[in-house]
Amino acid sequence: MSLKSQVLFWLGALVVTTIILLFLRGMLLPFVAGMILAYLLDPVADRLESWGLGRVLASSLILGAALVLFVMALLVLIPILSRQLANFAENLPGYLKSLELLAQTYGSKWLSPLFDGNLKSLSGNISDIATKGVSWLATLLKSIWSGGMALVNIVSLFVVTPIVAFYMLIDWDRMIEKVDSWLPRDHAPVIREIAADINRAIAGFLRGQGTVCLLLGLFYAIGLTIAGLNFGLLIGLGAGLLSFIPYVGSVLGLVVSLGVALVQFWPDWVMILIVLLIFSAGQFLEGNFLSPKLVGGSIGLHPVWLMFALFAFGYLFGFTGMLMAVPLAAAFAVVLRFLLKQYLASSVYLGGGGAGRDTEPRDHD
């Protein structure tokens, strides 16, 4: 096949696959979750297998331990988080009004000159924006929930996902070998190289950044709870979870926690500074210890690209799409970098002189 025919073939296969996934998106959640779970746990299974355990026994032990931990977390955390979330939503209008009052009472001396003394109008606009933002977020979450987690999917998530993960974990290495045997022999080395880069990117982000998010969430939640901040567990775990997108979780968690701290502790600046120090310490730990050790070097996923992928796949496939977003975004980024590398080495970029031409930009007087 010519290069043009191969490109058309793979583009056609991609289009057909996307259409099929769109039609089946309502039933994909337990299967996608099972595959991601198997991918995350495969290194642990490999390690246990190297210690002499059979693959089936290793997979059973890993999934059994994961399910026990998950059920324990579900029974302990979910009721607490549900209560805190309901109370936070109920008290949010009161918090916003208290923040407005604080701004008008204590910030008018500095803020009024900037807005020609029209601080009340500014506070009202901020309140309207915040209320509309909360309403939009609630609508978005409801859309994602209804689109990707219908009742049948919730049930299947607890029944089908462990079964899918178990069989995928058992056959993971055999499946990789089988797929490798299907590769076109002329292009197999290049495809293996691209696949290895994709695996490093996905593993670095899912396993590394996922662990960072878990540790940060626990750190923030424990710190804010000990500090006595209202909804500290909810805000801390939420900030850690949203840290999956670099900077977003920490900034949003800091803004929300400082807002709650101002209303709850004012005028006790010591407690407000403690909340600020908790997030500063979390950022210090993440930047100097957690990310360098667990994530390593750059994995090539820009925060803007990651946010776009999460929103785009979430819009198309609901909650299932959000699970697929990071692996697909990492794969697309690696393929795009490979294609760019090929383009920069081709005659299309270099012109008639080919590789012998100077590819570095020159300074002109």
Would you give an account of this structure?
The protein is mainly alpha-helical. The protein has 2 domains: 25-182, no CATH class; 187-345. Helices cover 82% and strands 0% of the residues. It is built from 13 helices and no strands. The longest helix has 52 residues, at 55-106. The relative contact order is 0.09.
In terms of DSSP E residues, the strand content is: under 5%
The string of secondary-structure elements, in order, is HHHHHHHHHHHHH
Radius of gyration: 25 Å
Structural class: mainly alpha
Number of strands: 0
Tally of helical segments? 13
Number of domains: 2
What is the share of helical residues? Answer: over 70%
pLDDT < 50 runs, ≥5 residues: 144-151, 355-365
Task: Summarize model confidence as the mean pLDDT.
Answer: 77
Gross geometry: globular
What is the terminal separation in angstroms?
49 Å
The major sheet is characterized as:
none
Write the layout of secondary structure elements.
Elements: H1 3-23, H2 29-50, H3 55-106, H4 108-111, H5 119-148, H6 151-182, H7 188-226, H8 232-242, H9 248-265, H10 269-295, H11 303-317, H12 319-344, H13 347-350
Question: Outline of this structure?
Answer:
This protein is mainly α. The chain folds into two domains: 25-182, no CATH class; 187-345.
Features of the shown structure:
365 residues, mainly alpha, 13 helices, 82% helix
